[in-house]
Amino acid sequence: MVPESAESLPADVKRDMTTTATDLGALRLRLGEWLGTQVGATVTVGAVTRPPEAGMSNVSLLFDATWSRDGVEHQLDLVARMAPDADAVPVFPDYDLRRQYEVIAAVAANSDVPVPRLRWIEDSPQALGSPFVVMDRVEGHVPVDNPPYVFFGWYFDATPAERKALQDATVDVLARLHAIPDAAGTFPCLAADLDGDALRSHVNAQRAYYEWTRRVDGLQVPVIEHAFDWLEENWPDDPGEAVLSWGDSRIGNVIYREFEPVAVLDWEMAALGPREIDLAWFIFIHRFFQDIAEMFQQPGLPDVARRGDVVATYEALSGHRVRDLDFYLVYAALRHAIVMSQVKRRMIHFGEDVEPATPDEYVMHHVTLRAMLDGSYDWSGK
Asked: By the number of CB atoms within 10 A of the CB, which of 17, 108, 216, 334 ranks highest?
């Protein structure tokens, strides 16, 4: 049986996770005051809402703003992206909005990849309590994560040909991002993070992130520790050139119309690194959701993001031969394991979950990651 709505999903899949305690009414008034200083007029802000598909690493606010200046009426549909509340147990150690702003601006200036139009950035927390970016709202559809799109929804209901068209168009986005020339020069805010070669810097940053997640409880997660060791034992001989890595490369971070991308979102994980980092994340994140569907004896979407299909499409579009994919898939699973361990801590903090019996169970996909490490994960047909 295929679930028809969130209400028909298995109880363990329906998760309402606390992401912020922000008072939206108060923010509406403060947004209006702040926008007034930007446009030089009295601004009326409509109701402020949070999109149902919003992620956990930031606070996204939807609103419209109207004002009159020099006899001309102005109306904009906008989105403000803010760092999460400090008391909401953030997923990441910092949320550098200035860097995200610079990356989006450079992508817009140096490629035809669709990104939202940037309007303003506020570096000071004085106006709303934390820095924020304001950009144009882009209308369309997003394959949502919570509950996952592999259970129901517009993408689930699409035909196989439509799903393949969306997948290929999104892989094309990756190829176009990776083709931006002189990544280090074009994205100096990301080049500043390099310490040695790009892959080593990327992995070192993930190790530092893992240490940050355990700074309070000191918890060692054996499957994460093992995965770091596995990476060292299987390090690629030649990681290749460093390109712009979107970082969170998945269909849930794209707005679509008619199965075509119209806005690429969520740049907080952007970095410089090998192309395969994005490709492996794209493949693995869908496998993560598909494995959940199969665990609940649901069909999911087994025809989506199969590694052979993704690689073939990317190689045809980019002219780049994909290398060491098994390494990067393990790395993707490791990166996601660190994120999930922090999400677990957050849910325990807010009383939405209980402390698991073993440290590995802080990672939802610990069984999958173990199987990938020992070579027993079955990728056939995937």
From this structure: 334
